[in-house]
Amino acid sequence: MEDLQDFKRYKIGQAAKEIGVKTYVLRFWEGEFDEIEPIRTESGQRLYTEDHIEIIREVKRLLYDEGLTIDGAKRKLRSREHNDILHEVHDGLLAIKKLLGSSF
Fold first, then answer.
1. Residues 77, 2, 21, 34: is their CA dihedral positive or negative?
2. Residue 52 in contact with residue 36, Cβ under 8 Å?
3. Is the CB of residue 36 less than 8 Å from the CB of residue 74?
4. What CATH number has the domain spanning 4-102?
5. What are phi and psi of 80, to 5 degrees?
6. What gap in Å lies between CA 2 and CA 11, rounded to an integer?
């Protein structure tokens, strides 16, 4: 059975409360960070997934805890995404190496 958290959706007020910021802050961050793009219902209501919440928490940490500017936080998020991709490629290559090593 799939994890129910995959289907959890937060309205903007719920997401803001969960993160500990005001709703207008989330709306502002949406305009600044391409990574934060909530799902829109037919009526235009914003819905945030667990992935969105994780990204927003990271944005908050970078801005509030590390004291980065918006541009600094954007750069840090981009570098994190690149590192995640590199780790996935590395893990995939190790798996291939292991498969090739065991076939000889």
1. positive
2. yes
3. no
4. 1.10.1660.10
5. -65, -40
6. 22
Q: What is the pTM of this model?
A: 0.71
Query: Which tokens in the block code for residue 66?
Result: 């590390």
Residue carrying the six token digits 């541009």:
71
Dump pLDDT digits (tens) for 49-96.
999 999 999 999 999 999 999 999 999 988 876 556 766 777 778 888
Order of strands across the sheet that contains 46-48: 10-11, 46-48, 39-40
Identify residue 75 by its one-letter amino acid code: R
Q: How large is the greatest C-alpha to C-alpha distance in the chain, in angstroms?
A: 60
Whole-number Å distance between alpha carbons of 8 and 90? 31
| Half-sphere exposure at residue 11, Cβ-oriented, CA atoms within 13 angstroms | 4
CA distances from 81 to 16, 30, 85 (A): 24, 18, 6
